Structures are given as C-alpha cells and as structure tokens.
Here is the input.
Amino acid sequence: MRSIWSDSEAAAFAGDLGKRVYTSRLLGADPELVLHGGGNTSVKTRETDFFGETVDVLHVKGSGWDLATIENAGFAPVRMKPLLRMAEIPHLSDADMVRQQRAAMLDPEAPNPSIEAILHAIIPFRFVDHTHANAIIALTNHAQGGERVRAVFGGEVLIVPYVMPGFILARTVWELIRGRDLTAEGIRGIVLMNHGIFTFADDARASYENMIELVSRAEAALGGWGATLAGAGAATADLLGLAELRGQVSRLRGAAMIARLDSSEAAAGYASLPHIADLAARGPATPDHSIRTKRIPAVLGADRTASLQAYAAEYAAYFQRHAKGQTMLDTAPRVVIWPGQGVVSFGRSVTEADAVADIAKATWETVQRAETTGGWRALSERDIFEVEYWDLEQAKLRQGGAAKVHQGKVALVTGSAAGIGFACAEALASQGAKVIGMDLSPEIVEGMASLGGEGLVVNLTQDEAVIAAVEGAVRRFGGIDILVSNAGIFTAGQYLDQLEQSNWDKSMAVNLTSHQKLLKYTIPYLKHGIDPAIVLVGSRNVQAPGAGAASYSCAKAALTQLCRVAALELAPAGVRCNIIHPDAVFDTKLWTPENLARSAERYGMTVEEYKARNLLRTEIKSRDVGAMVAAMASPLFGKTTGAQIPVDGGNDRVI
Here is the structure.
C-alpha cells in the first residue's frame, strides 16, 4: 500500500472539513480498505451555533454515504458534549443512542450520524479514520490473532477483542483509553479484532498515512509468512447452468435476482480448492459483510438443487438457534461457490450484485491469506447473527422502499434504438428490469445507456451475431426473463404483380425469420427465467391488411402464427408468449412532419385529426405501446398466453 496524498489536489479542499472529505475519498478509493459504504471517518471542529455560541462539533460520516464519493454534506455535524456524556453511561440501547445522536445534531436535515459516532468522539484526536482493511482482517481472524498483531505493531496500537459495534464498542474503547495519554505512549491506531482498524492524528494527512503505513505492515507480514492465492485458470462459463442456478436462487428468495459469475483464474481456483466446503463455511471476513452476503456462501455439489435446499435448511436452523423474536429473512444465498466454474454473486439489481461480488472477492482473498499463514478462523455464528439481524444495519437495507414490478429481471428488447422499441425498453427499465437493447443503429448504445441498460449493435438476421448477443447477456447478468421481439422494417408498398422479389425476401428475413432465430437462441434460457414472458410486436395489418402491403402484412401474419405455436410449445415450461398489434403510431422517425401532412391531406383531415382517426379518437404514442408491453410481461398477464392484443384506439375493420 502507498500514500496517494497530493498537495495540489488537497489544496482544492478548503478547511478541516474539506481535508476530511479529501482523505476520506482516498481511503474509499481503495477496495483493500473499504467496500460499498463500509468504514467511517470524522473530524472535530469548533463552530458557532444558531445562537452565536461556540460549540465543539464532530463531523462524522453520515449513514448511507460512501467514502469514495463523499462530500461535505455527507458528514453529520453532532455536538461533542452529548456524545462524550453518552460514553459515560454504562448501558444505552440502540434506539436511545440513535435518538440522542440526532438530538445533538446542529443540522436536523443532515444524514444520521454513523453508529460509531460516540467512538469517534472519545478518541482524543481531531481526525479519525476507520476501515475494514483486508490485511488487518487476515491478521486478526486467527487463533493467535492477538499475538500476530503484537508481533507486527508492538505497542503502537491498542488491541480490542471483538465486541458488538456501536455503543458497546464505544464503551469498551472508552474504558480502555480514559486517563491515558495516547500521544505520549506512541499509540497510532486501534486494532479491532475480527473487525478492522482505527487510526488518528491532529492532521488529516497524518491520520490517513498512519492508516496506509499500518495496513502496509500487515500486508508485508502476511507476505513474509508465505500467503499465496489459489489459481486454476479461468473457467469456461456453463451459461445454461448459470441461468438454471439463478432461477433456483431467485425462487428461494421469492424475487428475481441478477447473477454475476466471476470465472476468473482466482475465483475458479478458490472454488476448486479441495477443502472449499470447510473453508467457506467458517464465516465472513468481518461481521458487517453478513448484512449483504449472509454469514456463509452456498457451496454447490454434484446435485445443485440438493445443495441449495441443504443451504436453505441450514440457514433456517441457524436462525432458530439464535433468534430472539426476530423475523427470519429469506433463506437464499447471496454468494454461491461453484466448483469448476467460480463464484456467483446475487442481488436485486446490478449495483447490489456487484457490491456482493466485491465483498465476495475481498473475502476469498482475505480467507486464503489467513489460511496460508496459519489458519482462518472467523467469529462465532452467534456474533455474526447479532450483526446480520441488528436492526440498525437492517434499516439500511429497508431504505429502498417497495420493489418495482420488474426489479431484478433481465430483458432483451430488439429494434430499440428509437420508436416503439425504445419505448418498450424505457418502460421495462423504469419498472426495474436490466435491459439489453439490440439494433442495427449505432444509436442503440447511447440510447440504452440513458436508461441504465446496455446497447448492442446487432444484425438480427445473422445467427452468430444473435448467439453472441444472447450469450453475452446471460454471461453478464445470469439469465433472461423477458424477450420483446420488436425489430422490423416497413417495406415499400407494391402490388403483387409488381412486387420485387427482394422486397418480399427482405421483409421475410427481418419481420419473420429474425424473430424465429431470436426465439431459437433465447428459449433455452427463458425456460429458467423468473415469470418468463415473450412479447412479439406485430401489426394491425394482420387483421386488416391493405392493398400493396403483401410483403409486410404476410410477414406479420406469419409472426402471429409463430407466436401461437410458441405459446403452445412453451406453456409446459411456464413461458408465456403473446403478441401486440399496434397501429398508427406516428411519434417515430418513420413519420416526419411532411409525411404526416401529406397523409392527412389525402384523407381530407388535419394532422391532429389524422393522428386520432380511430374509434376512440385518441392518439397512439410509442409510450402507450411500451406501457402495454411492460404490462404483458408482468404478473398482470401472468395467466395469459397465445393472446393478440391490439393497441390501436379501436379499428372498425379489425372489430
């Protein structure tokens, strides 16, 4: 580890709070120190309150903020006096601690102070840094952890045996340091066994560089003791197996989940260790991680289903062994170790799954360092349970509110660079789906990025391109739940006796065969999807064709028949297939103002009258079609398959 302090960068951050922000970001930028909201920092200042009185204030990281991106507003300003008085109380409930910390804030609109605010307050230095450094965890999660810490740091750190974070930890440290002169004793940090490390100083840079130096010494000690990481060569992903695994884990949780497979050399090597079932079952690197990852991962055996069922049963038994009135969380694993493949991480969104993946990676690296330097020993399951079911930590996970309709689902939408396809992608993304859009137009990349999705330039008439796109989506997100097959072209109008063969062939290739190819390559994954649904985009021309539109109308009619056959074939697997027939959708690139004006003039109408020339006298917009498609892919249509749904405002010829 090395200091990345820069005088020129630091100069851009004004005052003590500014320097606090700067060094906090330096710490947060290193995953070897903190991950996804972990760790906390503070600075003590003197300020003038609303009444003009000078008060001592602790600016401590607020709940919900990440050190890597924290700003001034991310620090909660709390009066020091109440915090110091709380430390003197022998016993304090979590609820009272949170209430009194908020009551002591200078700004009631600031975020909740960290649960370690009291601990930051009692440490007698202006700047205090706390991380869950991997090297410190590897050093302390060991039968002789205390001896190892003393061997590395001597008397430069205080050692605190593991206790519950929050008030109990603050009270423990208060009793350890009261009446002592830490500066005179040369104390530069506090090592919390099985938890992490605190460093401090009266200068922002000194506190930060104390952290870097002490963690570096732990890393050096582990290297000197021979720590090595497993490697077995990157695995070739079993994509169908991944989709099946994702489906099983999602059903255990009762909700769709994104799955991130790490098949790298390091992950595959760890998953293939001969004693992996024992090693992985010992517990997490630090109890804080259990909030996201549960206490232990699932380790798959030859029978994946049996392995997951055994995991769920053991989790229920673990809960029963330690519960005291809590409500059991779901029994699905968040991390699955898959021998021969790697490590799979699960979350209700890509962001959540990535956070779990980062923690899983840090854990297996830390576990191996500790195991190869004398043996890995985690905290007792009772200690882990207390943090996993600690209401203060659970509250962080409840802040997201109710889940969206398609939360955690993976949706493929073709022809989605603009018009109806983009509207379908937008509707699904707004309802929580991870959308992968495909289109010939390069605009697909930027368009999907604006929705938080991924855009792929794909020629859907080419098998290799379709296979690569489908497999890429499964590799990145674990499976496919929704397919919206919208790609199409409107071929020039020609009567049958004048119809060019290329006109017919092109329409059939794009408006029919490309859909058949897409179905062929997605169906194996859809069969393992969560509430899987296919929605094809047809046309009003199927029921009410017009003269001169043979190539387009016949292709869309055949597409409708393809939908009916798919519904018959896929119903036993629980996959629904329906088709939507829109008409007169004019807010697309195909319809320029000039085209609309000419068409309206032919009917003797104004443009507005022409747009609403249906029975309901209403304009049909792309977003109307998108909303219907999102609904058809949802549980609202969960009992419907093989249906043809018009979105045309009512057409007298169809009716």
Summary: The chain has a mean pLDDT of 93.
